[in-house]
Amino acid sequence: MIKLYVIGFSFVLFVISSAQTNQTKAHKAYSNFGYPEVVDRLDALQSLSAEAKRELADSYMRAANFTKAELLYSAIYNTADEQPEDLLHYAQCLKSRGKYNNAISVLERYIQKNPQDRRAQLHLKNNRYFEDLVKDMGQFKLKTLKINSTHQDFGPAFCNDQLIFTSSAHDINFAYRTWNGNNLPFLDLYRAGVDSVLEINNAKPFGKINKKYHEGPASFNSDGNCMILTRVNYKKPDTNGIRNLELVEVYKRQLRWDSIVPFHINSSAYSVGHGVLSADSKTLVFTSDMPGGFGQTDLYMCVRKADKTWGEAINLGPEINTEGREMFPYINSQGIFFFSSDGHAGLGGLDIFAVPFEKRKQSKIKNLGTPVNSRGDDHGIILNASNTKGFISSNREGGSGDDDIYGLTVLKPLRFEKRLTVIVKDSKGMPLSHTIVQLKNNAGALTTYTTDATGQIVYIADEIPPLIISASKTDYLDIEKPYTFNSEDDEAQLHITLENNPGYSLLAVIKNVKDQTALENVKIKIQLQKPIMTDSALTANDGKYQKALPIMKPGDSLVLLIKLEKNGYLTKETALRIKLKNPGVINLNEYLNTDLGKIEVGLDIAKMIDIKPIYFDLGKFNIRKDAQIELDKIVKIMNDYPKMYIELGSHTDCRSSAASNLSLSDKRANASANYIKSNIQNPERITGKGYGESRLKNSCACEGAIKSKCSEAEHQENRRTEFIILKAE
Prior knowledge:
The protein is α+β, with helices and mostly antiparallel strands and 729 residues long. It folds into five domains: 2-129, Tetratricopeptide repeat domain (Serine Threonine Protein Phosphatase 5, Tetratricopeptide repeat), CATH 1.25.40.10; 140-410, Neuraminidase, CATH 2.120.10.30; 418-498, Immunoglobulin-like (Sandwich), CATH 2.60.40; 504-590, Sandwich (Immunoglobulin-like), CATH 2.60.40; 605-727, CATH 3.30.1330.60. The chain has eleven helices and 40 strands. The strands form eleven sheets. A four-stranded antiparallel beta sheet has the order 3-23-22-21, with no helix packed on it. The chain has a four-stranded antiparallel beta sheet with strand order 4-5-6-7, with no helix packed on it. The longest helix is centred in the C-terminal third of the chain and has 20 residues, at 658-677. The termini are far apart. Mean pLDDT is 88; it is low at 1-24 and 172-182.
């Protein structure tokens, strides 16, 4: 007696003696793929061993009874009997029940035991992946078809103006359908017509291609004269009596499909099936569980050689294949590769994915999402030549039978490249056409666009790297800003506002005082006191800040306060008062020191802030009023940074004796430090030290017999007060 089972992707035949058909142990049935019998024997039992629960749960999973499977896996979960594979199957079951958060939790436990499993990695890479997949994005529309039976109807394929599909229905008028006992009947190919609304009609058996066992699914070349057929290996079973699947090429000769060429990869030891051709018929992609793959079933390709024979099987690699099931490949007229997988992150069971075939190793694989995918098994997608209509197969809830065929309308084309739309408007929100937009990557490569009438440009690439984006237009202030595209997104928009240039504008470039490199993300606050205006912004990647001023005219006074802040750097506050000259850009760097210094040991604060020299009366060390104003700036900094420690160092030029200079500088340093101590918390944070002429900044020494020819300006360089950071947290 011959019994039929579904194993992975392959349909197999298992020869069992009459004595074996009377077996009474469920695990015997399970080992012989008798999943319905396992359910019959174990379902009513009250007490089951962990192994029996495992076999029963798997049998329920294969029958798509996920409710009962979930109960059994939950009974094993987090017990001494738990095995890693139980966690994976439990998570798959939870996904098929729509319990995605619970599935993620189980996978997080699973990956601790199997950290290299890509199925878990792909699902946990974004543990909220399902939130977008369950939404109908309006890209596809499905239609339930009248042709479906209570049996299996799947594997649609176009052949000229006909639709070829696979069905286990044994009466082509579909009026009467029964299962063959508890097992599925054999599969045959059918041909049918398709109308303009995707209804399948006038279905008939394909012809003599249908034999004793399984035939189907099939696919065809673009000319409709070559069929790639999946069928049972009629020659011999494997060593366990299993008849695996094989691929054959069937050629149409004088209106008859009778020239059959077996695929050279076929073997009785494993299954080969689901073969599809590329549009040019030079590449064949298929499914197999042959040894050496990544998972249960992998996708492979063969390339047609110059002599028209097929080359060796090439695994499509870990970018496509996982430890799970990858099957049902398809390549449309645009070279988009579709396949089904339960290893990539999906909604449950097999989901349909797509990726450009020639760029499959570097492009992001796209899950087609709802409504194409469901909690069930979704597979067998095909599209017409214009890629606007087609069909899929699915065993989702609400269908007529096991697998059903659904009509598919593509409402919006699939996109695999990234798209960045830059929209440029003025300060009133009006689009700015004819604006020059430049995009520069880290390597310096520059792409230039001009905005259209809507103020937009669209940048399209396989991947969008970090960019520096600038926009410029006559009578407007230029703008430049860094931009990072979210790699998880397919599309994004960047809105840029250009301000009118009324005549005067401010410009500042903020740099690191240590190496003069530009500082980005410096918070700059501008407060104009005359005329009144405030602004706050972050510097761009090039450290630049630019802002248009209110309408002003030559001769007007510009009075502003500026504050520069960046985490880890010493905050700087300064002021500017100037008389305006000719209209144009006012470069603040020409009037102010806008460099920022990182708060670190050894930094001289005097170089970071607007502080004037500390003057003393001749031969004196008392703190004058003008000196207090400058020292108060240090007081403010030390109060702003309560964990900062400073050494106040006083230096002289070479004139007068070294001993006298050292003594006087030490007194002045301590007097200055004491003034600061009296105005800060934790006064021990500042110390004063006089260095005299021991640390001249130039060659202006004049001690003893040495006579200096230095100018007063050069001596002035040596007379200084330093505020060196000793400690900062």
